[in-house]
Please model this.
Amino acid sequence: MNVLVDLGISIVKKVWDLVAPEDQAAIEAQMMTALGDMRATRKDTGEAHEARLAETLAMIAEAKKAQP
Amino acid sequence: MRSFVLTFLLGCALALTLTGCGKLPQLMKVNGTTAVAVTGAYRGLDIYDAKKMADIQATVKTGKPAEAEAQLNAYLPKYRIARTSVDVAAIAVEESALFIQQAKLMQGKARQQKIITWIATLTMAGADVVAKCAAIGIKIPGGAL
Model:
């Protein structure tokens, strides 16, 4: 009897996973938000690094030229 | 009757387990968590890079451009290794997000296996990001994988 009860509970849980689309939709929405944030941050930080590198290289080149 | 009910329930449990539907939300959660960690890694690397470049520029301003250039040449490969690792993790997140859309149309054991494989891939990619960032002294802000 206990086996049947455990099985019943297990099936109810699995059916709940299937029929609770709003939970999956909410999880997916959170995932998409995180994805968007990641894409924006990847782009912004890449551009920021390139800008800093260009500035630093320019400063080094200028300083070398100024040296006797 | 009892054995019929038991067999029926066992069959239902087996069918539901094999559909793997319950695992897709898990992959979505892992994907989202990894995306958050990768974002944190990009931000941590950005803060680190800003500080390093400022230090190198300060060296230039003290009239030592050759020394500054040497510092830059020593620093850039380390930055690029860390950045590449984070980019690889970002690509894994993107590809798994693409797979998630495809998985909605799939069924069966192959689907479940691919979901499990993606969860493992994302977990390893995230761990690699943490390790590569830690190797150059970066702690990912906001946390943990």
